Amino acid sequence: MRKFDYVFLTKLVLPDRLSSLLACLHQLQAEERRLPAVMAENVAKAVEQLEGRVFPGYALAIKKIDEGWADVPLSIEGLFSLVQLALPGTAWESEKKSLVLDQAFSAYLNSENAGVAPLLRVPCLMLDLLCIAPFSTASTAAALLLARHLLYRSGFVICGSIPFEEMILRYRYFYQQAFLEARKHWEENDSDYLPYIEMVLSLLYLGSRVSRLRPGSRRGAKRASIEMLVLSSALPISKAEICQALPHISPTTVEAVLGTMVRNGMVRKVGASRAARYIRA
């Protein structure tokens, strides 16, 4: 039987990559710069593409989160009501899954009381909700909405202006690989949350960088897209594969960004000429 407990994160020694991501995100929040308002309608469309279904309440829910959504209590009942508000008319897969999700919510609240960092405990709840799959076609939407609300309530307010859903859609393949890796042995209580936590934080960071760009500025967005693609790849990736994944970016730009990443020590170059591949250092 699946057991939920996120308190282990208080004693976990984090990998350097994850510690660096946490530090970067906390720095962004500490700077208190207001990111451009996220376009709720575009975010809702991204969720629809992920789920293959229209959720009429999602765009409104995003707008309410950006306003604070202070009227939703941080409790098991409040979390359930939050999901139902954003996904009107969505039926639960089964009563059993609803009860299991209740246990996951309880574990989340316990981890908050134990002092687990929000940027670590929220992805854990997202992963468990997706593994429980309480809705036949809306589990991803529920997980994303809860992540936005819980991070906002925990003080990470800039998440209200990060197009997180669009980032998942753009890097869907790599996001899915991280999810599949993290959910291995989930039923046996031996899943590894770290790959999924790292992917979620990476997409939040990338989304924050994209949001900071001036209107009409595309150079930074292209560089960030290439960096994210290479850094999130578990296997060495070639220039040709990057160009195929990002057809809107020229090969010249890809080559220039890769060269900078190698010089800065972000990635290692494996092989030479057309056989060259790049992997996170």
3D architecture notes:
The structure is a single chain. This protein has about 280 residues and is mostly helical. It is built from 13 helices and two strands. A hairpin with a 6-residue loop joins strand 1 (about 265-270) and strand 2.
What's the SSE pattern? HHHHHHHHHHHHHEE
Gyration radius (Cα, Å) is: 19 Å
Give the number of helices: 13
Distance between the termini: 38 Å
The main pleated sheet reads as:
2 strands, antiparallel
Shape summary? globular
Q: Show unreliable segments.
A: none
Q: What class, by secondary structure content? A: mainly alpha
- The counted number of beta strands is 2
User: Overall pLDDT, averaged?
Assistant: 82
Furnish the topology, listing elements before pairings.
Layout: H1 16-31, H2 40-51, H3 58-66, H4 76-86, H5 95-113, H6 118-132, H7 139-153, H8 164-170, H9 172-182, H10 194-212, H11 219-231, H12 239-245, H13 251-263, E1 267-270, E2 277-280
Helix pairs in contact: 1-10, 2-3, 2-8, 3-7, 5-6, 6-7, 6-10, 8-10, 9-10, 10-11, 11-13, 12-13
Summarize the structure.
The protein has 281 residues and is mainly alpha-helical.
List keywords for this structure.
13 helices; mainly alpha; 281 residues
